[in-house]
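Deliverable D2.4 — example input (structure tokens):
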């Protein structure tokens, strides 16, 4: 049994803590940052970011995996640069992400590319860039990669994404490894494709990829999936094909509320023995685990509205800035940036100004009685925060700030109204 072999430990979550009555990011007071850059803004702790990357790297160090940070969770250049400099590779899912990965100087041999809908142009650009693998999700895609690769006079390395049909016990929108999900190939097709690989002369099939879902708090679904893939690998090898790599995707959960997710160490202890038996080089694609608790969204209270049935804390951030509560009913802790020792509590929803009932950041929360002009922090907003933001209601996207070694840096400027109309044109006929 792997459980119980290591002492139960709570993850050291992050570097957003009160000093006196003010919330700090590392050694920098958040109130001062807000005064300088305005609100709302995303705020990242460089130290927390690297700490989480190193935790996973150290936990798996005995088998030296390739860690490819999943940049869909956060693709800010500053975040990517910090991780790439620390040795991370990147998991990309679009031509745009590949562009950003190369822009921050990621070694192309540390880039893996997943996505069910890679276009011919995206495939061509990725081949020219010399990425490590395409994680292939369908046979038409494999045929297209083969064609493009032949046209360019290359042979490209691929892994096949297998759908292990396991339930990761997470939200249905972030479950990706069940048979009914659009991702990957069924095991039989994977096995047959390795057997028929001569049909794709410009492709070298090197391994298997899986990704069963996100915010998974226990090791068991991973172990189940790896065990299933183990039998598949045995069959493929029996058929005479080679398997050198296994990519087990991302999905490690974090603490948003009172979850007890496994630590990186515990996760590693649970899966390393299975990986060793398979004699493959491991790839991990963590996103949320590395960046989720490294960032918060700071907003200012515009109004407090009390109605007969409900109280609303109306803030200047909204679902266009952080969509996770509206999309997944996700929980994010709300903390006052300045806590007052004596303050009444109230039950309230924290909402934005967008014209949707679904525009909320928190619901039914016992919060300190906020007043207009006060700041609050939406915790655990580093992953799938800014990357999922939009201009809905013609709202400029917020700024991003990073604290590095005791100083803060604006790493993305707040959008201006002019940015909202960039690239638009009104034809003469309409004027
Ligand atoms: N790899 C793949 C293929 C994914 O689709 C995702 C997320 O959807 C990830 C990695 C990252 O997942 P997480 O942020 O949960 O670690």
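Example output (designed residues):
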């Amino acid at each position: 049994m792997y459980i119980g072999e290591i002492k139960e430990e709570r993850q050291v979550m992050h570097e957003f803590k009160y000093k006196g009555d003010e919330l700090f990011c590392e050694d920098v007071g958040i109130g001062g940052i807000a005064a300088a850059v305005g609100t709302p803004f995303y705020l990242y702790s460089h130290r927390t970011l690297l700490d989480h990357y190193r935790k996973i790297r150290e936990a798996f160090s005995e088998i030296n995996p390739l860690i490819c940070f999943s940049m869909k969770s956060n693709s800010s250049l500053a975040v990517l640069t910090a991780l790439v400099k620390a040795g991370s590779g990147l998991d990309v899912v679009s031509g745009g992400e590949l562009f950003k990965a190369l822009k921050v100087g990621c070694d192309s041999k540390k880039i893996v590319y997943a996505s069910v809908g890679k276009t011919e142009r995206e495939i061509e650009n990725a081949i020219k860039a010399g990425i490590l693998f395409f994680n292939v999700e369908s046979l038409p895609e494999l045929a297209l990669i083969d064609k493009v690769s032949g046209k360019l006079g290359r042979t490209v390395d691929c892994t096949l994404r297998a759908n292990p049909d396991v339930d990761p016990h997470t939200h249905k929108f972030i479950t990706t490894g069940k048979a009914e999900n659009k991702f990957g190939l069924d095991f039989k097709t994977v096995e047959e494709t390795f057997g028929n690989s001569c049909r794709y002369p410009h492709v070298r099939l090197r391994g298997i990829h899986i990704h069963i879902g996100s915010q998974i708090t226990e090791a068991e679904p991973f172990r189940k999936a790896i065990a299933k893939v183990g039998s598949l690998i045995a069959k493929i090898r029996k058929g005479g094909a080679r398997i050198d790599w296994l990519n087990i995707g991302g999905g490690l959960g974090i603490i948003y509320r009172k979850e007890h997710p496994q630590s990186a160490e515990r996760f590693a202890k649970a899966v390393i023995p299975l990986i060793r038996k398979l004699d493959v080089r491991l790839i991990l694609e963590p996103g949320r685990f590395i960046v989720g608790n490294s960032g918060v969204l700071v907003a200012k209270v515009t109004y407090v509205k009390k109605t007969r049935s409900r109280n609303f804390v109306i803030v200047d951030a909204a679902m266009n800035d952080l969509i996770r509560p509206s999309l997944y009913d996700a929980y994010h802790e709300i903390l006052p940036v300045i806590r007052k020792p004596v303050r009444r509590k109230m039950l309230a929803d924290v909402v934005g100004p967008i014209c949707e009932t679904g525009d909320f950041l928190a619901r039914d929360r016992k919060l300190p009685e906020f007043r207009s002009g006060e700041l609050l922090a939406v915790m655990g907003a580093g992953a799938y925060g800014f990357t999922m933001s939009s201009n809905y209601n013609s709202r400029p996207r917020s700024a991003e700030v990073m604290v590095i070694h005791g100083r803060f840096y604006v790493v993305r400027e707040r959008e201006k109204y002019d940015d909202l109309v960039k690239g638009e044109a009104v034809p003469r006929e309409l004027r």
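Residues 1-11 have pLDDT under 50 and may be disordered.
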